Amino acid sequence: MTTGADVPDRRGRTGLDQHGRELTGNPRVRILDVQVLSCDWSVLRKTTFDYRHGDGHWSREQRETYDRGDGATLLLHDVARGTVLLTRQFRLPAYVNGHPDGMLIEAAAGLLDGDSAEEAVRREAAEETGRRIGEVEHVFDVYMSPGSVTERLHFFAAPYENTTAQPEDMRGVADEGEDIEVLELPFSTALAMIRRGEIADAKTIMLLQWAALDGPFKGISRPA
Length: 224
Prior knowledge:
8-stranded mixed β-sheet; 3-stranded antiparallel β-sheet; elongated
């Protein structure tokens, strides 16, 4: 008996070994077997499949995929004041892979957890920044690490309300171990921080560059 397959895991899930077996959209791929390697909060699977190459021959392949669910992220902006609202928090994976202190500057983001993408970004904006936001604009959807992680991240942008709240207030959900610092930055400063390596989070870089090229700050600001 396998936890997550035949026996419920700690989140009550079974049948996790069936994921992907039903796919028929690509005639060059035949899923043969799916094995659950780990299913704590997220799910690590090993999938065996046959793949037909461009020259016509078939090969048997195995890949591990990490499934943590889909997520959503949001760039909060105030065009009139020329600012964006970002967060800073500790990220262990970055810390153990070369980041000096693991404190990454990021756009607000989180997993969908059963909500729609827009509901999720509104929830995360409230939890991580404490600000009210205006109309949410969908930007694009991206597979962030398609070689191993199944997650599709939904990107959004929205104006935020300028209040008397202190940007440096700590936010986040305490029960989830979150300890999040809120940063209000001039947009031009945020762009310059990408060039200096001070902003190294992919989703945040993508949103800031979108804002400069096609978004609310198009033609307004340039990196310092």
